[in-house]
Amino acid sequence: EAGVAQSPRYKIIEKRQSVAFWCNPISGHATLYWYQQILGQGPKLLIQFQNNGVVDDSQLPKDRFSAERLKGVDSTLKIQPAKLEDSAVYLCASSLGGTGLSSYNSPLHFGNGTRLTVT
Amino acid sequence: KNEVEQSPQNLTAQEGEFITINCSYSVGISALHWLQQHPGGGIVSLFMLSSGKKKHGRLIATINIQEKHSSLHITASHPRDSAVYICAVRVDSSYKLIFGSGTRLLVRP
User: Fold this and answer.
1) How far apart (Å, rounded) are the C-alpha atoms in residues A20 and A67?
2) How far is the alpha carbon of B69 from chain A, nearest alpha carbon, in Å?
3) CB contacts < 8 Å between A and B, how many?
4) In sequence order, which residues have a C-beta less than 8 Å from that of residue A108 and are 6 or more positions away?
């Protein structure tokens, strides 16, 4: 089974520039997450999709961050314009999801992340 | 106060030692995940549990729902176990996951 694919692996940009990250979840996984992990901290949820609908984007800085999952498969996360404090690893994860109580407890699968450095 | 607390934050052990990492949480949960993150690497799911105990190789995870506490044990630790171990809880009847800040483990040869 192919894992969660993310690209690019690394990105260095200057502040006020734009950047986009891509994620392809495991085939058939309905739930897709984007997390931001700042050095020394645990992951923080940015946005969660169930198929192509947003389940939770309460911690997404919507003035500069946007994400989409148009066909309910792969997803892109964009930052425009970037700030110094956006330097972090951006992790994508997926789970089987679906409907019903059992779907809440599907195992998580993470990609290798994109390490963003804003200078 | 964070909803998910891990202890210790950092842990150094000698090869062969028995290691315990703790996770306490303050919300109602439907499941708890233990995750492993190697430096520069992605995150790997070790366990997902909602009651009792699970074992995989040298790793054992336990959870006490009444006390809202879980432990991850590593027996006969090895330098390759050096990583950050993260506890994450699934909030009851929702898709929401809350992560702890992780425990950084270093096992010296």
Assistant:
1) 9
2) 18
3) 61
4) A33, A93, A94, A95, B33, B35, B43, B45, B48, B88, B97
Whether B94 and A43 lie within 8 Å, measured CB to CB: no
What are B104's two structure tokens?
């950084």
* Residue type, position B81, single letter: D
Contact present, A76 and A54 (Cβ < 8 Å): no
Bridge partners, B22 (sequence order): B7, B71
Find, in chain B, the residue whose alpha carbon is nearest to that of A5. B42
pLDDT, tens digit (0-9, with 9 covering 90-100), for A64-103: 999 999 888 999 999 999 999 999 999 999 988 755 555 5
Query: Which tokens belong to A43?
Result: 């992951």
Cis peptide bond prior to A43, omega within 30° of 0: no
Amino acid identity, residue B99? F
CA-based nearest distance A110→chain B, Å: 6
